[in-house]
Amino acid sequence: MAQRPVVLVVGGGYVGLYTALRLQKRLSRGRAEVVVVDPQPHMTYQPFLPEAAAGSVEPRHVVVPLRRTLPRCRVVTGAVTGLSHAERRARIAPIEGETYELSYDVLVMAAGSVARTLPIPGLAEHGVGFKNVGEAIYLRNHVLGRLDAASSTDDPGVRRRALTFTFVGGGYAGVEAFAELEDMARYAITHYYPRLSTADMRWVLVEAMGRILPEVDLDMAAWTVKQLTARGMDVRLNTRLESVTDCHVRLSDGDEFDSDTLVWTAGTKPNPMLRETDLPVDERGRVVCEPTLQVRGMPDAWSAGDLAAVPDLTKETPGATTAPNAQHAVRQAKRLADNVVASIEGREPQPYRHSYAGSVASLGLHKGVAQVYGVKLKGWPAWFMHRTYHVSRVPTFNRKARVVADWTLAAVFRREVISLGQLQDPRREFVQAANTGRTGSLPPPSAEDKAQSGTLRAS
Ligand SMILES: Cc1cc2nc3c(=O)[nH]c(=O)nc-3n(C[C@H](O)[C@H](O)[C@H](O)COP(=O)(O)OP(=O)(O)OC[C@H]3O[C@@H](n4cnc5c(N)ncnc54)[C@H](O)[C@@H]3O)c2cc1C
């Protein structure tokens, strides 16, 4: 290995950020150069996205700026579009300018996962995912924008469509987003929309399996369904989305209705960029790893997190691998960084071992469900545990303090429920003004303009 090896970290999410943080602490600049490549200039603390969408936390506070947190690493804002580990070369597409190649000595593959979609008619045109902060901000503005639209029309069809919110996928990301956004909309209608009633809203969660929240026991999942149903929400188990054409949703149970909102949270798959690499992948497209997090048969290549198949040493089932979640990602990152340092120093890497502690999920303000080390909590205690656990986990003291400040301010001044719909298309007004200047009159609204009024057709 080179005197001063270059460690290339692909992705600055959970695994990438935590690995780089540890490497910059344990390896001085003279010993190695750590290069972190990510299309975003920040890490996203995804478990806070539902609260960011619901307005309990400022969206900027759920992301951690890479350059500020990693002052001793080189941060490249761009995407790795492929690599040959045999040649130790990666192809990088910066956010601006020509693609170039970067030579490295040690690889950490941590590019995470992407939404797993199905070829459902209309899904790509009408759906939105829930994996990044842009989507969380968009949904918050969109849901509030739909309340504004419903409150400002007398057309019952438009109203019903605007107030019908459809979510597909009952894992923790989907259930939390569904429950948090409903809670926010309910609060907004109760306090600020006298022309609307909470009974006018229809929230539909569609799940193909016979249960939601596979991360907790069946009784806790059933309790959650009961809670959501008691709030007037419609949870459809053993049901699939068949199509969504012109905002018309069709389900496999025969039901169909109009809905301006379709959120897709039905699972993830490993980053497809892996196909452009020579790293070994399993039948699910994940990088095949040894228990030490080394990529199988590839010296100096390491991987962890959502896109890695890491043997789960705590389970007796042959071939068991760790689940794609933050709990494993954070711990794997620490083990991975220590093993990279060990291999640079000529020591043996150690295997990763962690038994899953459980899950905490928030279902709106003061509501939650949790199962940690076998202890089952419901309602307020679960919600409180969700908040304390995640604030202890979000990286950097700066972010912890800001998140706590957001919660405190929301408790004192009520939660912020204002739609900043202009964020979805900030240039629209200016372009219209410029066009008016050219023609002397206001152009009639185009179909696109109309769609920009808030429905997902504009997304
Ligand atoms: C809404 C939501 C809520 C969640 N809540 C929980 C929870 O409560 N508990 C829990 O345990 N888990 C939770 N998770 C799952 C958890 O966030 C993931 O398991 C974790 O983020 C995985 O870490 P990772 O580093 O593998 O991927 P990520 O954190 O997603 O990081 C991947 C990084 O790679 C970057 N990247 C992508 N493509 C490229 C490329 N071509 N080149 C370079 N970089 C690239 C991305 O921009 C990203 O920054 C939640 C997920 C979501 C979406």
From TrEMBL:
GO terms for molecular function: NADH dehydrogenase activity. It comes from the Bacteria. Keywords: FAD, Flavoprotein, NAD, Oxidoreductase. Residues 7-332 form the FAD/NAD(P)-binding domain. Pfam families: Pyr_redox_2. The keyword Hydrolase does not apply. Gene3D superfamilies: 3.50.50.100. Residues 431-459 are annotated as: Disordered. SUPFAM superfamilies: FAD/NAD(P)-binding domain. InterPro entries: FAD/NAD-bd_sf, FAD/NAD-binding_dom, NDH-2. The keyword Oxidoreductase applies. Belongs to the NADH dehydrogenase family. This is NADH dehydrogenase. It comes from Geodermatophilus africanus.
